[in-house]
Amino acid sequence: MLQPICLQYFEAVARNGSIRHACDKLFVAPSAVSRQIVNLEKELNAELFERTPHGMALTAAGEVLLRYVDSTNGHLQCARSEIEDLSMLAQGTVRIAAAEGTTFDFLPARVASFSKQHPGIQFKISTLGTHQIAEQVVVDAAEIGLVFGVSSRDDLILRGRVSNSMRVIMRPGHPLAGRDSLAMSDLVGISMALPDRTFGIRRLVERAAQAAKVPLKIQHESNSLHFIKSLVQNCDVVGFMPRITFAREEAAGGIVSAELRDPVCEQATIDIVTARGHKLSTAARSFLRHLAGEEMM
């Protein structure tokens, strides 16, 4: 037991209703138990038991202390379980359903850093659209979902968010290149390449356009962000993506970007979700803690 001995003796008396019965459970002398209870009452400056001919009954102060002991026992059990989990991380599998945009740099970097600590853990990553990710998590085909701006759902638990505001991307020679920021009204008549409606990015852009009363001139549509990035680099269409999806191309000079001035798009996030009511594997719980140690909001 990790509880101080005075609390162990107090709990035994409280559970058994008498010092004699507590001693039988603890295999100690009654004088030892009595002494610990008296010392504890002096320390707290309160009577913990009402001594009656029928045994020891908790006072109001004793009930408060017993609740504290119960709470502490619960925390100790959680700590013990987590420590046991650490010893089990020699092997295991983490199943993740992720939005394509998270698989360019964000997710690989975090998987790589986790794997250095736990080389025996395997990862199975599926790249899907927003709705599909949610469904995969709910039916337990994946334990963790990484999705752009998931809608509130009763069957999902939001585990964390990473700030990831939307930007307008284009080739360096585009007429809008060089602007630090753009509003939807600046994009009237501009040809666009957008992901299809399975993407959270698409829904955010459509919401922003609707709020600004700006019609979208969609010239190309694809279910691949990689294709859209390549297209943007080779013609005068613009796209919409968070920076984590095109950071390498921007660093290499193939893409330039401007902040999209829109209240919704400025607050875009990567949402990390799990299914309500599903027990996560030891490996998945550990990876979630690893993510929490990164730049989650």
Summarize, please:
The chain is an alpha/beta fold and 297 residues long.
The number of strands is: 13
Strand residues, percent = 15-25%
What's the story with the biggest beta sheet? 5 strands, mixed
Structural class given helices, strands, pairing? Answer: alpha/beta
Strand order of the largest sheet: 4-3-5-13-6
Oligomer class? single chain
**Helix content range of the residues, please?**
40-55%
Separation, N- and C-terminal Cα atoms: 37 Å
Q: What is the C-alpha radius of gyration, as a whole number of Å?
A: 29 Å
> Mean of residue pLDDT?
88
Protein model, in words:
The protein is α/β, with parallel strands linked by helices and 297 residues long. Helix content is 43%, strand content 24%. The protein contains eleven helices and 13 strands. A hairpin with a 2-residue loop joins strand 1 and strand 2. Helix 1 crosses helix 2 and helix 1 packs across helix 3. The mean pLDDT is 88.
Descriptors:
297 residues; alpha/beta; 5-stranded mixed β-sheet; 4-stranded mixed β-sheet; 43% helix
What's the helix and strand layout?
Layout: H1 5-16, H2 19-26, H3 30-44, E1 49-52, E2 55-58, H4 60-87, E3 92-98, H5 106-117, E4 121-127, H6 130-138, E5 144-148, E6 156-163, E7 166-170, E8 181-183, E9 191-195, H7 200-212, E10 217-222, H8 225-234, E11 239-242, H9 247-251, E12 256-261, H10 263-266, E13 269-275, H11 282-292
Parallel strand pairs: 3-4, 3-5, 8-12, 9-10
Antiparallel strand pairs: 1-2, 5-13, 6-13, 7-11, 7-12
Helix pairs in contact: 1-2, 1-3
